[in-house]
Design a protein that fits this description.
Low-confidence stretches: 1-7
Strand content: under 5%
Shape: rod-shaped
Organism: Secundilactobacillus silagei JCM 19001
GO molecular function, one term: proton-transporting ATPase activity, rotational mechanism
Number of domains: 1
Number of strands: 0
Membrane topology: Single-pass membrane protein
Keywords: ATP synthesis, Cell membrane, CF(0), Hydrogen ion transport, Ion transport, Membrane, Transmembrane, Transmembrane helix, Transport
Structural class: mainly alpha
Order of helices and strands: HH
Number of helices: 2
Largest sheet: none
Protein name: ATP synthase subunit b
Amino acid sequence: MFSHLAVASSLAIGDMLFYAICFIILMWLIKIVAWKPINKMMQDRADKISDDIDSAEKSRDDAAKLAKQRQDALANSRHEATSIVDSAKKQGQQQRDGILADAQTDAQSLKDNAKKDIEQERQDALASVRNDVADLSIEIASKIIQKELSADDQKALIDSYIEGLGK
């Protein structure tokens, strides 16, 4: 009975030894054939994930820089628009002042011309009145005196009459 056990135990040890050697060879083959490609694939995936994270950080930084540039450009545009509006207001004010000054100058010129025209018309009216007064005076004097006045007498009479009107 023990002999059977001895054979079985030697057989079991030989089988175990065979299985252990096969397992070691199998592990060595798996290491050569499968483990290296799997490790390479895992390393490539880790590198890709790391690159993607770096790329995402770079893209985020670029987006932040671009947003800052846009904010700066917008602020600059607002500043330029404000300065343009202020400049336009100043130019409008200057034009308004210039137009008002020209209008006042033109109005003064028109007033002066009107005064000159009025004075001229007044002088013409006075001359016309003198002539009419002279004619009427001569007629009246002729009828009263029944004679014709000489030109010098007529002038003297008119001048004395006009001086009396002026006072």
